[in-house]
Structures are given as structure tokens and as C-alpha cells.
Amino acid sequence: MNTHYDVVVIGAGVCGAAIARRLSAYELKVALVEKEVDVSFGVSKANSGIVHGGFHHSTKSLKSKLEVQGNRMFDQLKEELHFPFERCGILVVAFSTEEMRTVEQLYRQGVANRAVGIELCNRERILMLEPKLNNDVVGGLFAPAGGIIEPYRLVFSLVECAQQNGVEVLLNWEVSSAVDQGSYYTLKNQKGETIEADYVVNAAGLYTDRISALFGAEEYKIVPRKGEEFLMDRNAKAYTRRVIFPVPDPLSKGTLVIPTVEGTTMIGPTAEMIEDKEDTTTTRDNFEKAFYSARRLVPAVSERDIITSFTGLRPTIAGDDFYIDYSRKVPRFIHVAGIQSPGLTASPAIGEYVKHLLKKRGIRLVEKPDWKPSIAEVPRIRELSPFDADQLIATDPSYGEIVCRCENISEKEIVEAIRRGHVTLDGIKFYTRAQMGRCQGGFCTYKILKILQRETGMTIDEITKRGKDSFVVTSRIGELAVGATVEGAV
Amino acid sequence: MRQEHYDVAVIGGGSAGMAAAISLAQRGKSVVLFEREEVLGGILLQCIHNGFGLHHFKEELTGPEYAERVSKTLEELPVTVFVGSTVMHMEEAHAGEGKIVYAYSREHGIVMAEVRAVVLAMGCRERNRGNIGTPGTRPAGVYTAGLAQRLVNVEGYIPGKEVVIVGSGDIGLIMARRMTWVGAKVKAVVEIQPYPAGLTRNIVQCLNDFSIPLYLSHIVSEIHGKNRVEAVTITPMVDGMPDTQRSFRVDCDTVLLSVGLVPDNEVSKKLGVQLNPETNGALVDSRLMTNVPGVFACGNVLHVHDLVDFVTEESTRCGEYVAEYLDGVRPAAQHRVVAGSNVKYVLPNWYDRSHDNRFYLRPMVVKNRAELQVRLDGHVIKTKVLKHVQPSEMIALALDEKDLGDGAAQGDLRLEIAIV
Ligand SMILES: Cc1cc2nc3c(=O)[nH]c(=O)nc-3n(C[C@H](O)[C@H](O)[C@H](O)COP(=O)(O)OP(=O)(O)OC[C@H]3O[C@@H](n4cnc5c(N)ncnc54)[C@H](O)[C@@H]3O)c2cc1C
Ligand SMILES: Cc1cc2nc3c(=O)[nH]c(=O)nc-3n(C[C@H](O)[C@H](O)[C@H](O)COP(=O)(O)OP(=O)(O)OC[C@H]3O[C@@H](n4cnc5c(N)ncnc54)[C@H](O)[C@@H]3O)c2cc1C
After folding, report:
1. pTM to 2 decimals?
2. Residues 6+ apart with CB under 8 A from A376
3. In CATH, what number does A381-489 get?
4. Do A287 and B126 touch (CB under 8 A)?
5. Is there a contact between B56 and B313 (Cβ–Cβ < 8 Å)?
6. Do A466 and B89 touch (CB under 8 A)?
7. Looking at this predicted complex, what is its ipTM?
8. Domains (ranges, CATH) in chain B?
């Protein structure tokens, strides 16, 4: 017999995760289904990681409402879920009086949106707030409530909390067809397995249009807007105290200089409309564009410091607002579509909003008496003083085994990642930061492979970078036919 | 927390750290050596090819053999060795000239060693794809050559069947041969410069002997493939610019990067050690001491060496200097050494007029019959004709007191070393 759920949430990005956690507070049987091998492997892993300040979007939009509301929820969420988050503040910097006019407009919009603490700055004040700015700055805007997070850690924590409260997570589960059975839906995956759901929440990111079509709901098209980001070493001189924005253009918020919450610096994103939802290539042209723009903001930005780059795709929709609503065409179906920036920021509020929509569509919400909003905090050795570290190692020696030397990650943290189901190299990277530092896994990859082997029973040739056939190695020694040359002096 | 006291802490147990520790112990100093891995030897352990020790041991050894010889000597000396111990933090002692080194390990928790001097010998790391900014997708199958070497030589796994190697550094060349031996097909070695980055003997023995094509003045301009690497685009460089019209695609499932090494100086920064942006190693005086009194550096963490023999020589000498430092010897006046025309860097960065000085320098040019010129106060004080110079081969140069003229010389005492 098929497993029957009250609600199935499709897509384990930040939206699906926030929705699932919110629903986990009620007496409901909920599944979160995800086509990838791990959660947060979609748009939610490749973005700027900013909790936005609430001034970029028009007061009339749903986006701006959820952005401001979401922003306010982050302090409590961090208390409960322990993901890295800091309210470092956001600056928008102007280099001419014309640009300053736009900044003033953003300021008025921010005030109307009820963005907390927003202010206009003269030249001296903005340089005091961020001494590394280009000296040609004429003024700008400061949004102290803006902040930075590790986006995948947010998703992992939300999912862990949801799971702890009974939500089932189905990975490698790509919804590929759906049938309306009258009072419920049957969902089938790529392997032909099925589950049933009374209510469906479509939070499939770039593929919400496809899911909507599968269910016969509203027709719309999600067009990816590509953004490349460049990550720099933690010792980069360009590291600023606050997130630095240029004055936005019509297509995007512009290329930023971002001090990540983990102490590295990031430059990006670029913005370019494309067709292919899987096109995550980086290009030389965009690299040059991004650095050119970033250097205008902060002259210390140097190409020398780059350690890696990546691409994220914003799921855009006609009208450019979030499309979060129940379907008018099919019953018990909620769209969470067009969630481009500030999707991360808004996600906690989206969870709340979707809960209300479900309620409106007739779902019965009974609070669980034993709902646990918090998850256990996994200590990170790099955050402890040597004295505290010593005590921790005494309780568990694997905290003393430093696997990743660039980011100072212990074996224990890797084991904790694996025990939470992050069993690919990328999953471990996003959970722990191992392989994310300046050597990009040059030193620690083989150690992680061995721990994975030991903890999961997989052999090295079964391990992947991020699921599917992204195998790390292809063969063992002796398996390939050796040509005419004999293995000589080794 | 375990608290210990020694004269010196050596950080890193590769060939550099071992040689420095030996030299110090032989001079009666109490030494603690921290090594992150479970065994001593460092990078040597994964270099199972021949070609180590021709100068030092006067015979050709493999990397592990070389390491074993040195560690045998070390074992016989009273050096306290902590393996499986990573130094994560260092600071100045609260009182006096001492330093405190914190090492993390499974077995001992945190070992806190209070010492009077520190030898930095952490080696280097490989530059990676991000450092050279190769565009394209980010599939599995892109590795630094050193990681691939580890997978093959230590773990017994083959990263892939059809390989393109980016960069012609020594590790890349050696991996080209190694991958061929285990049955993979190496389809190209792609080098941006018009000359190879690795040693000539490796070009001959690792590529030519196996008919592996070397594309000089070419770059890998894009990596393709969604989950696993499927191909690369190779583009010729014409007058320093990529000529995209003539790009071609090579199918492969693996890309190995051999695009240089960088001294791994992250912990050094905790003590305020100043680095030379040219080498990413510390700036050192004629006695290999950094700007922080009592902190010395040798081996690949100071500058990338191509021959282990030079590492051993430099590090043994470093041990001597540290021992003398502990005995209260302070150098006479120090004067700057600068890299002149066609020289990338010279080490050490200061010299001492009252002593013999030994320099290592790296050329920027490929040249036959090059002349090495040492200039002092505008005058050429020494020349040396070299049959052939190239960036991949480091040059050693000794200057004795006589070369430096009588101690009374006045004027600008900056020493400039150039290749003309
Ligand atoms: C370059 C860039 C920078 C950004 N910067 C910021 C920022 O700084 N601050 C901010 O607030 N926002 C930012 N955003 C926006 C933010 O990242 C997104 O709004 C957010 O991550 C979207 O989350 P999501 O859950 O809707 O989508 P996703 O994370 O893509 O989640 C959808 C999930 O659904 C899965 N899925 C798809 N189809 C199926 C199927 N058939 N069956 C099962 N599962 C399926 C996918 O695999 C995916 O995991 C940025 C976006 C980009 C691209
Ligand atoms: C692939 C390759 C091929 C080579 N081939 C040849 C050759 O054919 N012939 C030849 O003569 N030379 C060769 N060399 C050069 C020579 O072998 C090396 O330059 C030399 O061995 C480097 O010694 P090292 O001690 O400076 O560095 P490493 O050997 O890298 O040692 C550094 C040690 O420090 C440890 N360490 C680092 N950080 C910490 C920390 N924070 N706490 C504790 N421990 C730490 C590391 O684990 C490592 O063991 C080759 C080098 C390479 C990389």
C-alpha cells in the first residue's frame, strides 16, 4: 500500500525546508521530497547568502512584505537552529549625485517597507562604516538589520528540525507524474514508486513550472537568470565589515562585495537571462565583469585571492514578484514559485504564509504538544578556545583529528554530517566546510573518502561528489588493461 | 591540557622539519616536532618514483626511501615527536621571548608547548582550479595532481580513464606517467607557457617515453560535463592571447591540475610573520629568521623547492642558526638582497657581510649561457656563467666574505642578483 501523507512538499530547498519545519509543529503527516541526493542542492546552495535589508523591493510586492517579515525572524531561528548568521549590516554606495538620487529613493522605499534602522549616510559616515570603500564614494545607505548566513546550513538545520518532529525526507525522489484521485493525489517518481498526498506544496525552485504542469495547475514559465559568484581566501585584503552593494540596475541588485559569515570574501553575482535550467557554467567574461564592478566598490579586491567560483540560477517568473498562492485550477495545491532573491531572507516568512494558505484551503491544524523547535548544536572545533577544545577532545577523541587544515574541521564534524545523511563529498562540504577553503579539497579529500568508507560501508568507487554518476574515481588499480608498457621501476 | 617546555618547536615533519630537528638535537637542544599525519615524511611519502637524494646521499632513492633514511637518523636522537598532531594556533608567551604552540590530536587532546624558538616547516599546497580560474561546469573528476597521486599510490584507486593534465609541473608530469602505467590514457598535457614548468628529465622520462602530447602555449579554456567531466576545450595562445578560433575539444573523464605550489603559511600568520608576496613564504634574514624574533622557516614553506636535497641542506643550516640563536648569537648588521633583472626571487632576503652567504634564486627566463651577476652599490662584484637556466630549475649561489669585499665599504649595501 502507498504511504499516505497529509501534505507532500516538493523540493527541499530553503522554501520547502522552511515550510516543512513550520508544518512539523502540527499533527500532520508530512513528506519533503527531493530529486537530488541531498537537500539544498538546488538554487539554495548557490547564492549570495545575504539576509536582505528590506529596501530593494516595492512596498506593493509580496516579496518585500515577506522579506521584511523574514528578516525579523532570523534571530530566533538562529537561537533554535544554530546556523551561522550575523547582522553585519548592508551598505549601498553611490559614486555620483545621480546615483545618490536612486539611493534616496531606496531609502524612502525601505522606510515604507518598515525596514529596521535604515539610514542615509554622507561620505564621511559611510567611509567610517566601511573604511575599505573606494574613496570616490559620495554617500549611500545603511541598513543595519541586513546580515549574512550560510544558506545550506540554514536549509540543513530546518530539515533536521523538521525530521526531528516527524517529517519524512525522501531523497533521490523526483516527482515525475501525478494523478488526482478525487480527494487525494498520487505522486510517482522516476523509478515508478508512488506516494499519496491530500495537499501538495510545489516548492520545486526552477522546476515549479514543470510540477504545476504535471498537476494540471496554472501555466507559467520559470526563466533562469544566471549569477556567477567568486569566492576569495579568508585572508583576502578585500574582506569588509559589511555587505557592499552598488546602486542597483533594473535587472538585479548588482555585483556585491560580501564578507561571508565564515570570514571569506565573495564577489558576485552577475546577472544574465538564459534558457537552460542546468547551465551552471562560469565564464571568463563574467569573471572580468564581476571583478571590474567589485573593484569599483572596494579597490582592494584582487583576482589573486580567488579560490573558487560557482553559478546560481534565479528562478524568475513574469511580473518578477513571488508567486505564492493556492491554485485556482486544481484543488489542494499551493504554488511557491518565482522565488528569486530575496528568497532566502523571506523563507521563514514563506513557511508561515504557506501554512496560512493551507489553512485557508481547509487543512486542519492542531498543534503538537511536544513540538521541538530546537536542534542539538554540533560543536565546531574551530570555534572553541584551546582549553575548551581540550575538554571536548577528552569526551570524544575524534574532535582532535583535524581533517581539513584550511577550515580547521575535525573528523567528528564529518562523522556528524554523515550521520545526518550527507554522504556525498559536496554534502559533507556544505555541512562542515571541509574542502571549502583555500586548498579546495587538495589535502583532505582522500581523508574524507576514508571516513565515508568507514562510516557508510561504501567503497571509494561508490562515492560520488553529488549523487547520480558524479563518481569520484572510476576504477581500482589492476582493473584497467595496461598497455604495452610494463610497469617499470614504478 | 598537556603543557610542555622545550627549546624549540618544529612544525611539520617532512624532509625540512626532520632535517631541522636533527640538526638541533645534534647541537644538544631539546626539540618537539609536530606532524599532522600519522607518519613522518611529508610529500616524499607519495612520490614513489626515483630521483631523490642524488646530491645528499649520492644515490638515487624513491621519496619514501629518502624519508625513511632521514627519519631513522631522527629516531636515534632525543627529539619528542607528536604525530597525528596539527598545529592550529601559536601565540607569543605572556612573559619573555617565548612562544606557545597549540597542537590538536586525537591521542593527546591539546598539547601546549612553550618554547623559545619555532621552526616553520609546513610545506606547501597545490594551486587549484579556482586559482587559475578555469571556466566551465564543476563536475566530479577535476583534481590536483597531488591528490590524484595520493589516490593512486596510497589508496590504490584510479581517478579516471581518459585524462587531460593542465600545467606541466613535476607532479603533473609524474602523474602522466603513473596514470599511463595503471592503464589510463593521458590525452594531453597543456601548458600556458611556451616552455615546460617541470624538470627536463621529467619531460623526457614521463612524456616523451610514452608519446604523450605536450601542448605548449595552450590553455584549457573550459571544462565540460554535468556530473562527471566529459571533455575540455583547449585553446592555443597567440602572442599571449587565447586564439579561440583555433580551439579544439578533447573528450576525457578526468582533469588533473599541476599548476604550481604555494607555501602553506596560514599558521605563521598567527604570530605575525611577514610574507613575501612573490613566494608566499616568509621574508627571512641571512639566518633564515623571519621578522618575528625566534621564528625561523625552511623547506617548501619558505619557497617551493624542486629538489629534496636542497630542502635538506637549507633545513640543516636552519637548525644550526636556531641553535646559535638559542645560545645568544645575534646576526651582525643585515642588508637587503633584491632580485634583479630576470630573477623571480632570491632567498634569503637579507645578507650578512661578515659571513659566508648561501642564496637560492629562481630565474624568470629560459636562456642558454646565461650570466649571473651579483651587484653591490652599482658594481658587479661577482659573475658566474650558467650553461642553461629555466624557471623550473632553482639556482644555488654561495658568496663568501671575500666576494663581498672589505667590511669597510660604504654606500648602498643592497645586494642585487640578476641574470643577463
Ligand atoms: C546567484 C544568486 C544569489 C542569490 N542571493 C540571495 C541572497 O543573497 N539573499 C536571498 O535572500 N536570496 C538570494 N537568492 C535567492 C535564493 O537563493 C532563492 O530564492 C532560494 O534559494 C530559492 O529556494 P527554493 O527552495 O525556492 O528553490 P531551490 O533551492 O532550488 O529548491 C527547489 C528544490 O526542488 C527540487 N526539485 C525540482 N524538481 C523536483 C522534482 N520534480 N521532484 C523533486 N524535487 C524537485 C530541486 O532539486 C531543489 O532542491 C539568490 C539567488 C541566486 C541564484
Ligand atoms: C610531487 C612532488 C614531486 C617531487 N619530486 C622530487 C624528485 O623527484 N626529486 C627531488 O629531489 N625532489 C622532489 N620534490 C621536492 C621535494 O621532495 C620536496 O620539496 C620536499 O620533500 C619538501 O619538504 P618539506 O618538508 O618542505 O615539505 P613537506 O614534505 O610538504 O612537509 C611538510 C609537513 O608538514 C606537515 N604540516 C603542515 N602543516 C602542519 C601543521 N599545522 N601542524 C603539523 N604538521 C603540519 C605536513 O603534514 C607535512 O608532513 C618533489 C616534490 C613534489 C611535491
Report:
1. 0.93
2. none
3. 1.10.10.1100
4. no
5. yes
6. no
7. 0.91
8. 2-125+262-330 (3.50.50.60), 128-259 (3.50.50.60), 338-419 (2.60.40)
